[in-house]
Amino acid sequence: MRSLLVTVLLAAIGCTSPDLSPKAPVAKQPAPVAAQPAAAQPASVQPAAAQRLSADTPSKTAAGHTFIAPAGWSLRENGNAVILEAPEGGSWIALVDTQAKDAEAALAEAWAAYRPDAKWPLRSTTPTQNKHGWKDQRTYTYQTSPNELRSVTARTMRHGDQWTVRIYDVANAVAGKREAELALLLDQFLPKGYVRETFAGRKAHKLDAARVAELEAFITRAQQTLSVPGISIGVVQDGEVVFAGGFGVRELGKPARVDADTTYLIASNTKSLTTLMLGKLVDEGKLSWETPVTTLLPAFKLGDPDATSKVQVKHLLCACTGLPRHDLEWLLGPAGATPALALTILGRMQPTSKFGEMYQYSNPIAAAAGLVGGHVAFPKLELGAAYDQVMATRVFGPLGMTRTTLDFKVAMRDNYARPYAFDVDGKIAQVAMALNDPIRAVRPAGGAWSTVRDLLKYVQMELAKGALPGGKRYVSEAVLAARQAPQVKTGKDSWYGMGLDVDTSSGTPMVFHGGRMRGYRSNMVWLPEHGVGAVILTNADSGNVLMDAFPRKLLEVLFDGRPEADDAVVVSAKASQEWIAASRKLLTLPPDQGEVEKLASRYRSDVLGEIRVTKTGDGATFDFGTWKAPIASRKNPDGTITFIAMAPSWSPEFVASAQAGRRTLKIRDAQHEYVFTESD
To answer: Domain total for the chain?
Structure first.
């Protein structure tokens, strides 16, 4: 499966509300974060001219290790180093081969070859899974200052008796925009002569009792290693459920166990169900995939009129419109916001790449997909109510998904899994549900609750090409095929369709979609060529690695594949704890009182609302209206101060500054910056 290489910081802050009706005036557009170059270009890349690539280009390092250089990037060789620069400039990936005696010596030699003047302090060093022929992998993360707007890491890896170092020195805006190109470059970096495992042409084993027991044992080990309170899984093969059950508890300290009927927030898995609903409307003749969205929902508009006019129904969930992640505006949205908020956000959104040019995952436009479908089916209802009704009548009801719901109160009425995450000290702690409440306003993109048993019914329908148990036709094969057809590339052998990922790198297509919200991680996958599908739902952020590791384990069991899944879990758990420990050393908690005294008591953003600061004794608290969190402080290498709201699962960071004589707090995602200014 395609692994996400760029993790975008998601935020969850409550704030007071502007007018959120469809006719509300458009708020000021948040400042875009430009792809800033580093303070000075690496000396090693200045002298020689680089080759600008017109197409994705298979390439080699000095030692013959292979990679694919993305189109539009520039490539140059400098002795034992290959250096690639992003089209925007100021962002580099360096691949350096060395004959060093060990990893530390290799790292020093690589920095000398790439950027001998680099001064970033080391933040942490964590183990990385040995994979694709590389051994002894380790990742080094450097402490950049927030105002540098970039991330810097290095990875050491060994093949035979030679070390290679991969240096990642990339502006956050570039990382957010060019996620798929980075995946192409980094995921395809393979040792000389290495042949990737393939299951092409192989027949899957029957999942008998012994093989199912192997999957169960894997989950049992992973649960303990990752400290996940509850995990529910289900597997189907040839139209039959071969396993559906749970491991662990719904809530720590209480005996009730999770099972196949326990509800979890499934987050972005909702997108797949939303596009299925649109497909049903296509079959009914109420719309087509090519229908312009503005003809169906006149209130739909983007911050760019030209892009607005181009958007068809199929583009709402294709991640190909050029719209970036824009999550802060709903994650920091007001309590009780309606789906009208999604349309307001869209009216401010500007594309950062050309229409159809590259993969950029964006939740607000995915939310619009559901609102369009709901409005077409039930034009007299409020947008959110219409979406809820069309999902109930076109998806949940016909598929027999009796416990799947978009209503938080219904979902949490009985047998539901509480969310968990590690706290600042690496201990498992319950996540406040208030951090998940904002998804309600964009629920077509991620607000459904479901169970393993219900989602297996959906997966079985996909594997049956639109037929229900007994053979009754539910949806046309053409509709299902359209949802899986490539809309935009996400890697060498992977693409995004409409609310569905497809990856063929194992030699057999895997269709899937994952979901992440605070304290919940989930995935559903199926192998169309083999009649096999699976669902995994977890109630902890530490279940994140299982989104890839469980499908990998399934492949290992089905095809006697190389053992990788267990190692992925063990390494991930160790790396997580080492990262938390390293991050904790940089924090002052309670915060530096001298710096806290410089904070205003109230801040306001025209777009994101209000933050109140409460100073008590030796501590302080950020109050976001719907939730509160204690403040920690951190001094950055450039002398600036960052204040962090310390909540399990999410710790939003604010850089203290001043603007026009007033104190400010800045929060950023990869491609945007928002400023809170002190208010009376």
So the answer is: 2
Q: Are residues 459 and 572 in the same domain?
A: yes
Q: Is there a contact between 96 and 110 (Cβ–Cβ < 8 Å)?
A: yes
Output helix, strand, coil percentages for the chain, rounded to the nearest 5. Answer: 30, 30, 40
Domain stops at, among 521, 546, 578? 578
Is residue 26, in this structure, part of any structural domain at all? Answer: no
DSSP labels, 513-536:
EEEEETTEEEEEEEETTTTEEEEE
Q: How far apart are CA 314 and CA 370, in angstroms?
A: 12
Do the domain assignments include residue 372? yes
Q: CB within 8 A of 121, min separation 6: which ones?
A: 142, 143, 637
Cα radius of gyration (the chain): 24
Within-domain flag for 474: yes
What count of Cα atoms within 13 Å lies in the side-chain half-sphere of residue 648? 19
* Dist. CA 462–CA 484, nearest whole Å: 11
**Residue 31 pLDDT class (50, 70, 90 cuts):** low
Residues 6 or more apart whose CB falls under 8 angstroms from that of 284 comprise none
Beta strand 602-605 pairing with 135-142: unpaired
Q: Quick one: 159 and 220 in the same domain?
A: no
Task: Quote the distance between the C-alpha of residue 77 and its chain's center.
Answer: 33
Q: pLDDT tier at 8 (50, 70, 90 boundaries)?
A: very low
Q: For the chain, give the mean pLDDT.
A: 92
CA pseudo-torsion sign 616, 618, 623, 628: negative
Structure tokens, 632: 């920690």
Question: Distance (Å, rounded) from C-alpha 437 to C-alpha 334?
Answer: 10
> Which residue has 């990385």 as its token pair?
128
Taken in order 251, 254, 257, 262, the sign of the CA dihedral is: negative
DSSP line for 532-598: EEEEEEESBGGGGGHHHHHHHHHHHHHHT--S-HHHHHHHHHHHHHHHHHHHHHH-BSSPPHHHHTT
Looking at residue 159, which CATH number applies to its domain? 3.40.1000
Cα-to-chain-centroid distance, residue 60: 30
643 in any annotated domain: no
345 contacts 26 by C-beta, under 8 angstroms: no
**Do 213 and 293 fall within a single domain?**
yes
Distance CA 424, CA 646 (A): 7
pLDDT, tens digit, 9 for 90 and up, residues 404-425 = 999 999 999 999 999 999 999 9
Distance CA 163, CA 505 (A): 26
Using CA atoms, how far apart are residues 84 and 427, in angstroms rounded to an integer? 40
Burial class of residue 25, CB neighbours in 10 A (0-12, 13-18, 19+): exposed
564 is in which domain, residue-wise? 209-578
Residue 141 main-chain phi, psi, to 5 deg: -110, 130
Cα–Cα distances (Å) from 71 to 7, 45, 68, 76, 81, in that order, read 23, 19, 9, 14, 20
- Which residues sit opposite 665 in a β-bridge? 656, 676
CB 79 within 8 A of CB 96: no
pLDDT digit string (tens) for 48-87? Answer: 578 999 999 999 999 999 999 999 999 999 999 999 999 9
379 CB neighbour count, 10 Å cutoff: 10
